[in-house]
Amino acid sequence: MSFETAxxxxxxxxxxxxxxxALRHTTRAAVAATYVAVWFGLAVVASVMVFVxxxxxxxxxxxxxxxxxxxxxxxxxHTGPILPDLRMDAxxxxxxxxxxxxxxxxxxxxxxxxxxxxxxxxAGQETKVRETVAQMAYDAAVRGAILGLIPILxxxxxxxxxxxxxxxxxxxxxxxxxxxxxxxxxxxxWEPWTSRGDPAAPDRGWMPLATFLxxxxxxxxxxxxxxxxxxxTTAQTRRLIASAIDTYDRSRTFYAEAATKxxxxxxxxxxxxxxxxxxxxxxxxxxxxxxxxxxxxxAGGATAVLDAGxxxxxxxxxxxxxLDSLDAAFDDLDRWGVxxxxxxxxxxxxxxxFRGWTMLDxxxxxxxGGATLLGVDDPRSSGLGNWRDESxxxxxxxxxxxxxxxxxxEVRVSTVLVHDADLGAETLARGCxxxxxxxxxxxxxxxxxxxxxxxxxxxxxxxGTTGGAAYAIALGSKPRRTAQVTLVTYxxxxxxxxxxxxxxxxxxxxxxxxxxxxxxxx
Length: 522
Prior knowledge:
2 domains, alpha/beta, globular, disordered N terminus, Purple Acid Phosphatase, chain A, domain 2
């Protein structure tokens, strides 16, 4: 007996062979790889185009400047109508074009001398340019990656049938109009007719700096490859530049020799488990001392730095070069600070905070070696006397609030960091801190032992000016008065000793004896 089904089933496809599946997977992988390769190529082209056409405005060498990356491997500085432009090797395939803008210098002579001082300690400015260019390259890469995806997405979303339809229309009148439209849009964005330079400016060639200055001017070896371009060839301009080179050479020599001597100083050796901190204050723009301060810190075994303020003369944005230099000198150490009375406004605090410094603001924080830190900006720095969010407080009122915060702390405050030691006087009088560190006076005062009303002892110590400042500005080819860095030693979270190190205007170091701190009450 045979059985028949009521209907017929559709024919079944033969099962796909292993070879067919492998071929299909290979095809898909090849298509995906093609998409990735095309995207990568488009992204690279777009990134390079975005990068070389981008600009960034920053503060550099006491100027507002417009920085443009290039692929020339040269650093070109456009100084303006008075001084000649400069060109030098950038040390990498990526170069920069720097156009100097406004500055607060009162005269061309003062400005050129300022260039000389900054050039003597270039690390901060070089780091800032490298970081800015690196950020611009990263931004360009991100934008290029996104732009490179757009054609791929459009191609994919259109689908195969739509792409074939458009391909058939390319030879038609509509296709020609569309192609012409795309071409016109590209040309419009490119603007090849626009001159990238000043058509009225003469075509000036570059010449070696030595040729520009003429015979009789000795150039440091590092200036041998610098070229200049400019119409200004007067004797006065040459004298200005020659004077700046002499200032640069004297400044570089003095501070380089001082840093070398500092590395060999015989300083107190910390015991196992001790933490040494370098205390700096009142730099007042003297970036020349930064390498010296770091050399002292290294010789003493310091792993952190405390900054008691007055890093600038007026807290202006043009003084960012001073903060850049400070940051570069101590970039691999733990760093805390406060603003001084000359650091007017919030620029200094904001700038250093952005660059990784812990700027104290009236709250107890963890400090070096298990210590606890409390501090606040000098109330005269902003002109308002702010205590965090409250305005209108006097200097004494801020000192009283600081004492309140110290005495209310659940753990004893190891160190109060302020610009003026008077701001921490009440804290010591109440016996609520081990040590008050400050600057402001430009000369050392203390350490002075204070027995608090609660029977706890503490010390007040004012360090001398690290910048060697006689007045509000210390930028120069050498310190204007004795410069000082103090090494503070902590053990088990409490300060146990101080050692001041001084550099005289003649370049001679004086290492004071190590002063133990006795913190037990009477």
